[in-house]
Structures are given as C-alpha cells and as structure tokens.
Specification:
The protein is an all-alpha fold. The protein has 9 helices and 2 strands; from the N terminus they run αααββαααααα.
Length: about 240
C-alpha cells in the first residue's frame, strides 16, 4: 500500500488526468442511463443500497479474474488476456451503464491495492478505458430495449468497438507511452511482436496492432459475450431480487 501511495505521489499529474477521464466516462454513462430510463418510464433511482452492494461484489470477482491473466502465442508477453469483463458485463446488463463504469473503476482500484502498478498507471488506465469501450456501448444499447435480440446486438457492437478502439488506442497512445516509460525505442517493442507473429512487419506499428492487439480484443469480447449470453438469463432473477429461481 505504501508503494502505491508513492507511485501516486510520483505520478500526480498523470493520476489526476486518469481521474478526469474516469469522471467524464462515468458522467456519459449516467446520461445514457437517464435517457434509457426516461424512454422506458423507469422511476427507481440509478443507485440503491442493494445495487451498490452488488456492484461491490461483481467488482471483487472481476478483480480476481483480472489477476489471472495470461499471454497468447501471437502477441508479445506484455500483452495479456483476462476475463474480468465477464462479471462486469453481467452486472452491467442487470444494473445499467453507470454501474458498469463503477465496476470497471473499482476493479482497477482493488487491483492497485492488492498488486500495485508496474506501469506507472499507464496499463491500468488502458485496461479501464478499453474495458469501458466494451461495457459502455453494450450496456447502453441493452438499457434502451431489454430483450435477447438487443443483447446479442449489444454484445457484437461492444466487441467491435472495443476491438477498433483498443487497436487504435494502442497505436496512438499505449505503445508510445510504454516506450517512454521503459526508455525503450518503439522499434524494440515492435520487434518483440515480429518475433512471435509473422504477420507483424518490421518497424510497422500498424501491422503490430492489427496482428497482435486486434485479435486479442476480438477474442476477449467474443468469449465474454458468448458466456454472458449463456448465463445471464438464469442468473438474472437471482441478481435482481436476491432470491433463488
């Protein structure tokens, strides 16, 4: 915990910008949820005591899944796949977009408390923003019309947005940020991709993100979406009422 506070102090401006991004995304989620509630004539508050408790529970499960990440053979080892968005997507479908953003934030906060940061918060910001690029559009679509067809469309849309955004975000921000953080030439990072993936062309950041990052996000979004579609309906009565089916 002391190491975490030290990292926060050393990277105060970056942490502040991180918090601003979180607030902006959360406000966007609240506005989308309010619009969906108005359309569907839902009058209950966005956050209730029970909902806050459920958000905490889903966030804790997501944090545990986040810790069990693993590398894939087509990407360098600093890219890892985890399924922490699974409980968050389930919880977001049940409780709305604002709850989803809160779960993403609490997941990262719990992870920082348990494991700290090895990337001066760069990787943690990336995980939050890319996770929200999946959760937010999917949950917003589902909030407006809650049926199976919309849920499928929402999952497909969220997966595609996360894949496109995550790929572009890596090329424009994340890889250059890691290059500065570890004082490594960008070409050295790209070379790590070409060593494990023949589709990565030397010194080409476009081929790197297309061959390494895009498939990883596509696999994550697809697998999380499929499992969510299989388990959400049986779990929904338990999540929403707290009683057994």
């Amino acid at each position: 915990m002391n190491e975490l506070f030290q990292n926060v102090a050393e990277n105060a401006m970056y942490v502040l910008s991180f918090l601003v991004i979180i607030v902006v995304i959360f406000l966007a989620a609240v506005l989308l949820e309010k619009a969906a509630r108005k359309k569907n004539d839902v009058r209950e508050p966005i956050f209730s005591t029970r909902k806050v408790a459920m958000i905490g529970m889903f966030s804790a499960v997501a944090m545990l899944l986040h810790l069990f990440d693993f590398s894939l053979p087509f990407a360098p080892p600093f890219y890892k796949l985890d399924f922490s968005e699974l409980p968050i997507l389930v919880g977001t479908f049940a409780f709305g977009p604002a709850a989803g953003v809160m779960m993403e934030f609490i997941k990262i906060l719990l992870k920082l408390c348990v494991k700290g940061t090895s990337t001066a918060f760069v990787g943690d910001l990336a995980n939050f923003v890319i996770g929200c690029s999946f959760i937010l559009p999917a949950s917003a679509l589902y909030a407006f019309r809650k049926n199976k067809k919309t849920a499928i469309i929402a999952c497909i849309t969220g997966t595609l947005i996360m894949t496109v955004f995550g790929t572009a975000f890596n090329a424009v921000y994340l890889l250059p940020a890691f290059s500065r953080l570890y004082s490594l030439p960008l070409d050295s990072l790209l070379a790590m991709g070409s060593e494990v993936n023949p589709w990565v062309q030397e010194s080409s950041i476009v081929s790197f993100v297309a061959a390494c990052v895009a498939p990883l996000n596509l696999i994550k979004g697809t697998s999380v979406s499929v499992v969510t579609m299989l388990i959400y309906k049986p779990l929904s009565p338990i999540i929403k009422t707290g009683h057994r089916i």
